[in-house]
Amino acid sequence: MKKIAAIFLLICSTSSNAQTYFPFPDSVGVWRQASTYDQGFSMYELTNYNIFLNGDTIIDSALYSKLYIYSCGTFMIPFSYPNPPTGCPIDTSNASYYGSLREINKRVYFRPDSLYYNNDNSWSSFCFASNWNRNEDLLLYDFNVNEGDTIVYPFLDSLSIFITSIDSILIQTNYRKKFNYNISSWGNSSSCSHFGVGYNYVEGIGDISSGLFSLYISYFENAESLNCFEDDEVSFSNVSDCMTVGISTIRNSELFELYPNPASNKLFIELEYPTRTKVIVYNISGKEVYSSFINQSKSTIDISSYKSGLYIVKVINENGTSKSKLISIY
User: Fold this and answer.
1) For residues 160 and 149, is the Cβ–Cβ distance under 8 A?
2) Left if phi > 0, otherwise alpha if psi is -120 to 50, otherwise beta: which for 186?
3) Ramachandran category for residue 196: left, alpha or beta (phi over 0 → left; psi -120 to 50 → alpha)
4) Structural domain boundaries in the chain
5) pLDDT tens for residues 241-299?
6) What radius of gyration do the chain's Cα atoms show?
């Protein structure tokens, strides 16, 4: 993990910077966020929480990254008190599965977990309309747009945003595109008031002001804020005391090398750390076709009898950390 002495932000023209696309994290990523609510009587309610990636799952034959949430508790604080520390540790054992992410053609989608469904098919944490089908993804961010484009969110009562400009922001040593927008249509829902959104989002991170799900939050006497973000490439922080250590507890680093890809008769696996490791192979429909334990640095899987197509190889080490890779067998 790269250590950051300082984070510098610089807005500039995309004509000279931000030519490299930075995809959304798919194995390592932590959004450390805060919710505040005005409680009256000069008091406010504060909740620090983490949203983080940990492992993969297959939904409708597609590979998703699993998203978890962990809260460090809610506190009532007088306005006269100084802001408390924003750090919140990552507790994987007590975190709750929140849903899954995937990116397709520079568009990031979210599939909520069924435990959060309301009776009307809406999702209890969000304010989107009830016309959502549980088997459909929710669009979070579209990075495949240009200045002047309009993005429609059908499950936010057809709320739409208009891309006013595309700038660059310097995060550490690389420029990333920052998409600035205005809300061009507020939709029809009285429960969705989007006054708290950040009106911009950045490649590989999302809304750098109001957090990962900023457009889907209903704002009234509350606010959402991104304290900091961290993955295996970069750290970004809006506060001076944000905890940016501990990501190793959910780190899905390159646990293994898999080759060749495409493959025909044999598939080779090389472990970065040779310990007792479980290897599972799924076909694209999610059916398990192979499962075994290995503990040597290099192993071989006989795939000569497998039908041609796409498969997912999942490796789980003795600590429970997992990593999946898509392969083609011919």
Assistant:
1) no
2) alpha
3) alpha
4) 11-250, 256-329
5) 665 444 444 444 456 788 888 889 999 998 877 888 889 898 866 788 999 999 888 99
6) 21
Residue type, 41: F
Cis peptide before 25 (omega within 30 of 0): no
Q: No. of H helices and E strands in the chain? A: 0, 20
Q: Would you say 243 and 230 are in contact if contact means Cβ atoms under 8 Å apart? A: no
Which residue is associated with the tokens 């950051």?
A: 4
User: 256-329 adopts what CATH topology?
Assistant: Immunoglobulin-like (2.60.40)
Which tokens in the block code for residue 130?
């009830």
Q: How many CB atoms lie within 10 A of CB 80?
A: 7
Which tokens hold the place of 77?
A: 């604080």
Exposed/middle/buried for residue 9 (C-beta within 10 Å: 0-12, 13-18, 19+): exposed
Whole-model pTM? Answer: 0.67
Give 203's contacts (C-beta < 8 A, 6+ positions apart).
18, 21, 22, 23, 143, 176, 177, 178
Provide the CA 179 distance to its chain's centre, in angstroms.
Answer: 18
Burial grade of 178 (CB within 10 A; 0-12, 13-18, 19 or more): buried
pLDDT for 178-197, tens place per residue?
A: 999 988 766 555 455 555 56
Residues whose CB is less than 8 angstroms from the CB of residue 147 and which lie 6 or more positions away in sequence, other chains included: 163, 164, 165, 166
CB 79 within 8 A of CB 43: yes
